[in-house]
Amino acid sequence: MPLSTQSQAGDEQYVLVASLDNVRNLSNILKAITFREHAIFNATKNGLKVTVEDSKCLQANAFIQADIFQEFTIKEDSVGFQVNLTVLLDCLTIFGGSTVPGVSTALKMCYNGYGYPLTLFLEEGGVVTVCKINTQEPEEPLDFDFCSTNVTNKVILQSDSLKEAFSELDMTSEILQITMSPSQPYFRLSTFGNSGNAHYDYPKDSDMMELFQCTKTQTNRYKMSLLKPSTKALALSCKVSVRTDSRGFLSLQYLVRNDEGQICFVEYYCCPDEEVEEE
Amino acid sequence: MKFRAKMIDVGCLNHFTRVVNTIAKLTKSCVLRLTADNLYFVLSGKVASGGVSMWCELLQVNFFDEYQLEGVSAEANEICLEVSPENLSRALKTAQNAKSVKVKLTKKHCPCLTLAAELPSLSSISRAVTHDIPVDVIPRRLWHDFKEPSMPDFDVSIYLPPLKTIKNVVDRMKNLSHYLVMEANLNGEMNLKIETDLVSVTTHFKDLGNPPWGDDASQSRDPEEMAYARVDIRKLQQFLIGQQVNPSKAMCNIVHKKILHLILLHEDVSLQYFIPAVA
């Protein structure tokens, strides 16, 4: 492999080395969380977690497990840094991000530790690109304290059904209202826009509904502007889990299958917009 | 002063259209120089055009079935016109399937290049589209600006990799930086580099080969030594966007820290493009 000959001083100096035969397996999933420039990277022996946040109200996490990479070597328990995500994506797609079968860009990503740049070696068709992206000290990601024991309602849907609803959502509505209930209307998306109100109902025995676990009727509102970025993840995903906890916090978990058929996860957490009187 | 020419072959028409489209992507306005044997599209490195100059040479016999030219005088048998290639390109668009296209220098309310296309018709009545493209006739005393540029005394000359690959890389680099360094040596190696506060990116091409110019000066040069030019990345991008067909030969001459001279050779068309270096 041409890339292995590229590293000058050997790999011993690096605290993190990750290689991919097809860079799209990383770039695609990062695109799903690109709505702010800064991304916090955290690597452990399990893999890579990339976090992007907005307004202390929205958090997106992408998980790329270690076994997605052809090589994943980490010398410390946890390695963290922050980089500019748009810059990183431009670097990862430097050869155009071709989708032509048989043409793929190989990646080797190295990090030398605190204060060092993130170094990328990319190779396609014998042409090598070396990128050094400056890193910053990672900020502490928000803890949304969303734990599965506090989950009141949960549904798992085929993404196609939600894609359809999201593509038709009335974007003049400032908020998206989500109702989840053990009785009618089970799972409802509502918008309140200039041209009127709209409700999208999903029956709980629909083919698209893989799992329906609602214990209590709950209606919460979320800012449309905050949920908008999550449609990027939705577009890539095949399944989505929608959960709300007792505080009304929303968790969207997307299951994304890459070019090789392996599975990665993207997760969005969103704060509710305001309390709604429950009936 | 008289000019009239006629094109019948659809292959020639398409080829000519492609050339004009390429020119239209490179510049808003240029000089069309007509001589008995050749057509030239010329852009001289004025400050207004950012110091970029262009020289595109076409043999008239390869395109036109009829070609009559009477220049300003017997000893200066040529005509120089300032024309907007975009207007020419638009006129040619409607002439795509024409049975014949006539190009004529006419005097309407102002001097015009009149392009008359005879379109195929199902009935016996012929369909014709005529475009009058306003031009400025350039007086003879200004012609010295539009002579063929002399080959610069370059330090390194190198064959370019596929233009598509360069274009992909340059497109991404343009998102990251305003300036790009192009460097090459006599060992067939070429690098594209950008460097900003956030990131440094270098793309390495090798085994490109150096054109034999039969030059002694280059033989005494250390084959590893790089010559470079730092240029406005938009100007390079503009050049790459315009290229619709892969040329039979593409090469680049670098005058160290001074100029980037790009040459594309198709069978019967040659295009030279000069980008000045910035400090």
How would you describe this protein?
The complex is a heterodimer of chains A (279) and B (279). Chain A has 279 residues and is mainly β. Chain A folds into two domains: 13-136, Proliferating Cell Nuclear Antigen (Box), CATH 3.70.10; 151-270, Proliferating Cell Nuclear Antigen. In chain A, 13% of the residues lie in helices and 44% in strands. Chain A is built from five helices and 18 strands. Chain A has helices at residues 24-31, 85-92, 159-168, 224-227, 230-236; strands at residues 16-20, 38-44, 47-54, 58-65, 71-74, 79-84, 106-111, 118-124, 127-133, 151-158, 175-180, 187-193, 196-202, 209-214, 218-223, 237-245, 250-257, 263-270. In chain A, the strands form three sheets. A nine-stranded antiparallel sheet of chain A has the order 6-2-3-4-18-17-16-10-14. A five-stranded antiparallel sheet of chain A has the order 5-1-7-8-9, covered by helices on one side. Chain A is elongated. Chain B is α+β, with helices and mostly antiparallel strands and 279 residues long. Chain B folds into two domains: 2-146, Box (Proliferating Cell Nuclear Antigen); 156-276, Proliferating Cell Nuclear Antigen (Box). Chain B is 19% helix and 40% strand. Chain B is built from five helices and 18 strands. Chain B has helices at residues 10-26, 85-93, 163-176, 216-219, 233-241, and strands spanning 2-7, 30-34, 38-43, 53-59, 66-70, 79-83, 100-107, 111-119, 127-134, 136-137, 156-159, 179-184, 190-195, 199-205, 227-232, 249-255, 259-265, 269-276. In chain B, the strands form three sheets. A nine-stranded antiparallel sheet of chain B has the order 10-6-2-3-4-18-17-16-11. In chain B, strands 5-1-7-8-9 form a five-stranded antiparallel sheet. In chain B, strands 14-13-12-15 form a four-stranded antiparallel sheet. Chain B is elongated. In chain B, 34% of the residues are buried. The A-B interface holds A 84, 86-87, 90-91, 93-96, 117, 125-134 and B 161, 165, 168-169, 171-173, 175-176, 197-207.
